[in-house]
Amino acid sequence: xxxxxxxxxxxxxxxxxxxxxxxxxxxxxxxxxxxxxxxxxxxxxxxxxxxxxxxxxxxxxxxxxxxxxxxxxxxxxxxxxxxxxxxxxxxxxxxxxxxxxxxxxxxxxxxxxxxxxxxxxxxxxxxxxxxxxxxxxxxxxxxxxxxxxxxxxxxxxxxxxxxxxxxxxxxxxxxxxxxxxxxxxxxxxxxxxxxxxxxxxxxxxxxxxxxxxxxxxxxxxxxxxxxxxxxxxxxxxxxxxxxxxxxxxxxxxxxxxxxxxxxxxxxxxxxxxxxxxxxxxxxxxxxxxxxxxxxxxxxxxxxxxxxxxxxxxxxxxxxxxxxxxxxxxxxxxxxxxxxxxxxxxxxxxxxxxxxxxx
Amino acid sequence: xxxxxxxxxxxxxxxxxxxxxxxxxxxxxxxxxxxxxxxxxxxxxxxxxxxxxxxxxxxxxxxxxxxxxxxxxxxxxxxxxxxxxxxxxxxxxxxxxxxxxxxxxxxxxxxxxxxxxxxxxxxxxxxxxxxxxxxxxxxxxxxxxxxxxxxxxxxxxxxxxxxxxxxxxxxxxxxxxxxxxxxxxxxxxxxxxxxxxxxxxxxxxxxxxxxxxxxxxxxxxxxxxxxxxxxxxxxxxxxxxxxxxxxxxxxxxxxxxxxxxxxxxxxxxxxxxxxxxxxxxxxxxxxxxxxxxxxxxxxxxxxxxxxxxxxxxxxxxxxxxxxxxxxxxxxxxxxxxxxxxxxxxxxxxxxxxxxxxx
DNA sequence: GCCAACATTGTTAGCGTTAACAGAACCGGC
DNA sequence: GCCGGTTCTGTTAACGCTAACAATGTTGGC
Lengths: 358, 358
Fold this sequence. Notes:
The structure is a homodimer of 358-residue chains. Helices cover 43% and strands 14% of the residues of chain A. With 358 residues, the first copy, chain A, is an alpha/beta fold. Chain A folds into 3 domains: 44 residues, lambda repressor-like DNA-binding domains (434 Repressor (Amino-terminal Domain), Orthogonal Bundle), CATH 1.10.260.40; 129 residues, Response regulator (Rossmann fold); 132 residues, Response regulator (Rossmann fold), CATH 3.40.50.2300. Chain A has a 6-stranded parallel sheet, with helices on both faces. The interface between A and B is large, with 53 and 52 residues.
């Protein structure tokens, strides 16, 4: 039988054309040694002539390895998740893995279970969850989902390996920077409290104030959106109007900082002359705001690379026979932390001279 | 043989536990009719007990359908592509398809060929390319890549089905809006000229000026980044200093508009009192800039939905026997256009009174 | 020239599923 | 009670590939 022109060619077609067995074709395709150079060339010619591509499905079936990794994310259009995802994607491709991505619409246990199911259906070999939310981590740890599973920004106590940016340190550096500029205290507009990142940034802010012996004002709670930054900015202006000293604000992300800048501008307050503002994320436009925003940069590409490496390590560990090194017990889930870096620009400046009205 | 605790269970294990043949299990799993309710229940119990999941690889091998669609994108961290991707992802999941995504680092034929190969390796059934760049479309149309293939923002003449936002109309509306406010002409900061979107927006800008009988100043060429917006803003200010009338600027995206606002602010020019600015994209922070930015919104979710539908249509068309309707010849590649919508905010206002110095 | 060792190739048997066909059990009408 | 037609279930054979083994050359040392 000649190869059907309708069907795409299979190994047997190549084998027939090259005058060898299909196994020899397999050996050539997989770069096995012990194939005569002349044979390799002949097979290669046949492959080119037919436009043959190895059927990954059949290969996966017999090798029991799909080479697919899953990624669970919440909202891939947000700056952080999008960057992290891009980092993972690049690292995965370099490592020869394919990626299957699920974006969650909500973090309910049902939604998470559905997403996990979607990935299991595809026989992913392992999974990375970009899981910055408390509820998501809970749901993931509870579901008998795909393993191994690595949590990015996952928080502790989940029993999962975690890769995260040192949010608390970044926040601490930002606040410390403001205190060094002479501000007596620093206000805070936090992110959505359901997010672990919001919590870590609050913690870093609070620690820096404590270390400086400064009182921590009640934080204003936003939800990451520019709108909430704007609204919290107006509240802050109200506070100021009642006589409270407001000379510096640490905002949990750049988008909210943009909203805050808008609110301050509307109220006729100058940045940094009247109030200093520091953001978090270092979005590309931060440098071009009015004024250019002091902020904290995260190396998302590295987070992606590291989390993939952790996942591949876990995959490798799973292959080793259990109990081989039984004396040491199961190794604890690793927790890798990527540093954050302060970028000082013009939105932060020295504290203004004390208000003569007071 | 009892099911090995190491291996995950297969149909045969379920069949043994339920006391039926594996084929009956298959029927239950696939929801075939003609299975007795009592049998279905027994099989379902066995499935639950063993935690059985159908092996999608084996299924794909025999059905010759992987249920995987490929997406080729250039930079998924940019606003437009990220939104489009999210739209496609959601639509694909709803349609029961999996997605495999490749982010290109460069649009060279070699890079594109590699990406295409990556998708072919995975036996994708079809492909969507988020291909806003001229070189990318060229490379894609040339490569004997995966088919069917739908191009998002792909431009014409490629012979591929295309889904795109009506960039030219959006740009036209933006410029028209400025003219209606009394501006005698509108300057333009364009995007990277390698991008088709940049070209369409230039075309829309030019047409609106022509229709109004206004002269079109030389456009300033940016590259979408806030930095280039800033730099082109400074050039614009130079033009103004030489006596050229610059009262309104249409900027090809919001990020560059942010850079422009910064440049204008530095130069002491007020928006919109001295100069009106209109952007494109309607990023979430546009509403909270100083001043809130008039811009053009694109419905990326709809682009995602529509492009998936076009792809599925093409898939369906491929299944039908060729020549069945031979008289009409092959149907032309469809070209679907999603409208864009102007969002008027405060960065655009009436033209200032003519400069008394002139 | 013979044997061991190696290099090279072919043969066979799955991987876990679905499709196609083949039986078996059951139904109502005569 | 027997028949045609359902309804349900089981058997067998792919899908395209790799692993394991078997069977050939091919080489080199004596």
